Amino acid sequence: MEVVVASNTDELAARAADLVEAYLHSAPSPVLGLATGASVQPLYRELARRHREESLSFAATRAFLLDEYVGLDPGHPQLYRNVIRRDLARQVDLDPAHLHSPDVHASDLDEECARYNRSISRARIGLQILGIGRNGHLAFNEPGSAFDSRTRVVSLTATTRADNARYFAKPDDVPRRAVTQGLGTIMGTGHVMVIALGSSKAAAVESALHGPVIEALPASILQTHPRVTVILDTHAGEAAIDSGAHG
For strand 99-100 and strand 62-65, is the pairing parallel, antiparallel, or unpaired? Predict the structure, then answer.
């Protein structure tokens, strides 16, 4: 596991974008796994800038969304498919037909989850972008999620809903369920890149990197993946700095 502690948000975005760019150039048909949330927004802004100013192309890329809320209208601005379109897809030359997400409005959600998981397995995501929750969740795999879990419908914890309430008009508007790639699905990715910002993530990062590998802390499974890059700001990386991580 490589741990990078950046001195500021711009450096963090640049280091993460370097990894994405290197991957796009290394594969004839790259497949990205895309997360949403505050931690990855600086990365997406930097990728958009490189597309605009340096001709970084996503034309040959396919992308799969990591998770999605259940219960929001198709046009809701916080539906993650709409978020990723706004923050990245429409800012670069990613073909809309190559942006994949679970259909959370399907009549049979369990079957849709199975279909989406099969699509991900066939596509073989080469680089998965992840954030990490305050409670150590990855995607919407909350504490207690099985390490071999696959794409499925989950209930969101009060902690996760509270953390996401800032994106909604009022806390009760935050959905209580979501579809998420499972931990087993995520671990099938060739390379995992985790981005974390802020002191609120420091404890989860420390436990994920240095604590026991237990289902009570989903992010601890990263210790078992053969290729992980963790990119942190100085606040999220307090423990990593103490242990000698490089920036």
Answer: parallel
| Short-list 64, 128, 73, 75, CA closest to 102 | 64
Q: Cα separations (Å) of 36 from 68, 83, 210? A: 9, 7, 25
Place 241 in a pLDDT band, splitting at 50, 70 and 90.
low
Residue 247 lies in a domain: no
Query: In sequence order, what are the residues at sequence separation of 6 or more whose Cβ sits closer than 8 angstroms to the Cβ of residue 54?
Result: none
Question: In this predicted structure, what is the pLDDT of residue 245?
Answer: 55
| Residue 233 covered by a domain | yes
Q: Is 246 exposed, middle or buried (0-12, 13-18, 19+ CB in 10 A)?
A: exposed
Kindly compute the dihedral angle of the four CA atoms of residues 70, 72, 75, 76, in this order, to the nearest 10 degrees. Answer: -120
Question: Is 116 within a domain?
Answer: yes
Whether 48 is covered by a domain: the verdict is yes
pTM, two decimals, is 0.93
What's the CA gap between 84 and 33, in Å, rounded?
11
Residue 228 belongs to a domain with what CATH number?
3.40.50.1360
> At 51, phi and psi to the nearest 5?
-65, -45
Task: Provide the domain count of the chain.
Answer: 1
Domain membership of residue 99 as a residue range: 2-242
